[in-house]
Amino acid sequence: MKLPSHAMFAAQRGFSLxxxxxxxxxxxIGMLVIFQSFDTFEAQKxxxxxxxxxxxxxLMALSSIERDVRLAGYGLxxxxxxxxxxxxxxxxxxxTQVPIMPVMIxxxxxxxDTIVTSYSTSAFGSLPSQLLLDTSSSAAVLQVNNAARTxxxxxxxxxxxxxxxxxxxxxxxxxxxxxLTPDGAALSITTAPGSATPANPPAAxxxxxxxxxxxxxxxxxxxxxxxxxxxxxxxxxxYSVVTINATTREGExxxxxxxxxxxxxxSLASGVVNLQAxxxxxxxxQTQEINTWVNPTGTWAPATITTNDIGRxxxxxxxxxxxxxxxxxxxxxxxxxxxxxxxxxxxxxxNDTGTTAAPQIDLSGDTNWQxxxxxxxxxxxxxxxxxxxxx
Length: 391
Known about the structure:
This protein is an alpha+beta fold. It has 4 helices and 22 strands. Helices cover 19% and strands 30% of the residues. Strands 4-3-10-9-13-7 form a 6-stranded mixed β-sheet, with no helix packed on it. The chain has a 5-stranded antiparallel β-sheet with strand order 5-6-14-15-16, covered by helices on one side. It is elongated, with a radius of gyration of 32 Å. 36% of the residues are buried.
């Protein structure tokens, strides 16, 4: 049966213009909701991911510092005394004097501190050999007792010549050759210049007379013996935070080998924006209990600290501040004030007390610092090679 024409037109009729417009509006609203939800979840994902990266960087930075600090001081002691707290270092024709101690912290104020660790890499670092000839007449040759036979020194080894009882500076040299005396009772160590021994001065004589400390000549007096300490490759690592982007103030923790002249700093962890360290000090050198934590300033600064006070430093505590790479739309970090009143333009590290001030952290060099999230990683590291001594 054939349908009427008006029924056919009714069956073929589609959406009206109004219906299409309403559907488009509903669809656009749905798309906006979807994209807003996606943007929200994507921002949360970026925040979480960047926070995880910051956490990994902080843990990596802290573990790198901790590993070196635990070794610090090995080879720097003789007869329960620090060999010296100043070291004469030859660089070409010139000699300079630098502080030398197990852990040296340079205070950066509210900016980042710098940590330097020093220790021997030789198995004989804890067995110094006594000097048998006065260095003022031994030219480039150091003659030592041969109790450990020739195995204790090898060509290329770094040496520290020291007289702990006189309290004078050490001198750093490098082995260029070794030879037994005819009777086998002594070992002659040559410290001649050369490309393989860059730590030695260019002249093979007067190794000590023209050093920064002209008194740094070492004799063989039984009452005040001088010693030669095998430092191996003599590890002296510097840890510091370096800004790698002046605009975003992005930073990283770098390690620099201070023993090797012209060495290039190595990046250890990205996202690190601040490093703070303090010295854990005992009341007297003979006790192992830490009574207070001090910043490395004043009498505790590397340039002024005494040998006895170095013996009182039983541990250090380190705080590493990392920043997420994600900059947020609004401020997500606030200033922090410690219980005693240390104001930080950034997070707090440790709770201070009336006698121990917490370090100040200032991140305001970046005008957008509050739009980033931060993590603070802290640890206390004992100086085992200091605590094992009785001075």
